[in-house]
């Protein structure tokens, strides 16, 4: 293979990059590396000749940090069921389920720029499919769960001719229809859905372990009921969902999705089949919704149609806006925030001003939570572009930068 | 040379369409196996409702040449580019590129034939790093889909590493090698323009469409960009069609020039000739004190 590569062909070109001789050369007007936020205006700098020295020192540090964070979170998540009571476990499980769903909608809305108001529909499809497939068709429960996720994906696929063609907010309006169709079916197709009262959810049974209270199980003197057992299932599912989504976002599909969001025409011209990608992301997102539905059904132990309404969809949008659009960490943070808040308010309603006991006529904890996270959405949009995840990375970056400078500042004067 | 451009793995994405395109088993950075092809634009007409943006425009870009498309504002240059890259549909007429008819294809199918373009207004993703923006240019050469990227299968990883190396090479070539890990939005305008050109090069194109590559640049940046475009032609031997207002750059690097005015072609030929064409001078400078050539121009 003899053709010249471009690099070889232009050694002596008078480009600024070629003009900078060695990377260690002092660059007086160089700004501090890693400018805080992507949104800050570009400083008028010869950015190309910037040596970017701190990169190398950051990497091992960051890896160690990441490992430490991982170890701590694994330890905490294993220890939690041994110390916390059922209420907190249930709240945590709801948050996990919400996080899975939020990751899904963040792939669609945050990363690809396609609004969806129909996410609750796919949660419903997942939850009810699990019940139907395991109870009525008698599938083994793990198989029913997998099948329920696939059914959610298929129903997303049925909608994908529309999802592939409509852009952004237009898709949001179209998906609104899914909510109403879904609600109608859930209330009226009684043989399958159980109508207004819904249906009981059979407990998951995995490798002989039943995720229910009945066969008693005591681990280290702690009685392991359904919530304790589900906790580990939830952790595993959430971890898997997060890792998969991260891979998608960082890989080839993620770049295509982001470009569709930023410049649809450019994406097409660069070879991305835009409609197919939009449809594909929609299907993936609905599968995440289905998985979240299965988990929430297992925690609830009863599926009821009311839960899967418009408000749930809006909750999911609030989650990704508060947490941070387009990232997995953002989805998880937002899901934790939005699903923990009402529970916390309920729990401590007697101690909080302006929040009344449910049913006593005042502002109920659920309403108060909605008001609060409505305010949180506004606050995030105004003050925190990037949401909670953006805030975290910004803080982390500042810390790391300080550490880096302390260790091996090449030229402290250039720190400005 | 390794098999950097071998298509492997991932039968999932773009199943049928790809097969028409010759496999690219040559070293990366060279044009496709069958070399740069001729681009023949014939009688292309584009109408938006009552407005005729392009009126039976014809020209030919010779393989391996730099062809400039010039004309006053509103002459239809960008419309022409949008037709060539599949963004607009031509009302009538045809565009042939190496045996394929482009006018019936969608943008990603045009891209699959090896036609890359840049935009007049930068169309990069500002929050992504330069590396990620360039990796998007490898989209048509890579295969990883949702499943293999999500599961981080070895095929997807190897592919990312291989193409990442090539991307770094191209970035170096375009003079943005030091900026790979910087979000594009933080870079100055002139550098962003280069990144866009580098992204187009990352598609390993056979035909490069550049929409005003030096617009809004200062003198030094213009010279560098013109030098870069020349070295692209020299080292890759691909055809380049560019829209440009800067006559200095056009006269320096173009082998042939097509002049549009009000959607019609008014001149076509080597730069020196076109420069002297009375019709072209009239279009640019107006026709004061001279009987007009029957053109109803205000």
UniProtKB/TrEMBL annotation, chain A:
Family matches, as InterPro entries: ABC_transp_permease, LivM-like
GO MF terms held by the record: branched-chain amino acid transmembrane transporter activity
TM stretches of this protein: 63-82, 88-108, 115-133, 139-159, 168-186, 230-249, 279-304, 316-341, 371-392
Annotated keywords: Cell membrane, Membrane, Transmembrane, Transmembrane helix
Signal peptide region: none
The UniProt record lists the keyword Transmembrane: yes
PANTHER family named in the record: ABC TRANSPORTER PERMEASE PROTEIN, HIGH-AFFINITY BRANCHED-CHAIN AMINO ACID TRANSPORT SYSTEM PERMEASE
Membrane topology: Multi-pass membrane protein
Primary residence: membrane
Annotated spans, Disordered: 1-53
Source lineage: Bacteria, Bacillati, Actinomycetota, Actinomycetes, Streptosporangiales
Pfam family name, one: BPD_transp_2
Subcellular localization: Cell membrane
Amino acid composition bias (Pro residues), ranges on this chain: 23-44
Record keyword Cell membrane present: yes
Protein name: Amino acid/amide ABC transporter membrane protein 2, HAAT family
One annotated Gene Ontology cellular component of this protein: plasma membrane
UniProtKB/TrEMBL annotation, chain B:
Region (Disordered): 1-32
InterPro entries: AAA+_ATPase (IPR003593), ABC_AA/LPS_Transport (IPR051120), ABC_transporter-like_ATP-bd (IPR003439), BCA_ABC_TP_C (IPR032823), P-loop_NTPase (IPR027417)
Gene Ontology MF: a single term: ATP binding
Alphabetical list of CDD domains matching this protein: ABC_Mj1267_LivG_branched
Listed Pfam families: ABC_tran (PF00005), BCA_ABC_TP_C (PF12399)
Domain of life the protein comes from: Bacteria
Keyword annotations of the record: ATP-binding, Nucleotide-binding, Transport
Domain ABC transporter as annotated: residue spans: 39-287
GO cellular component, one term: plasma membrane
UniProt biased composition (Basic and acidic residues): 1-13
SMART domains the UniProt entry points to: AAA
Stated name of the protein: Amino acid/amide ABC transporter ATP-binding protein 1, HAAT family
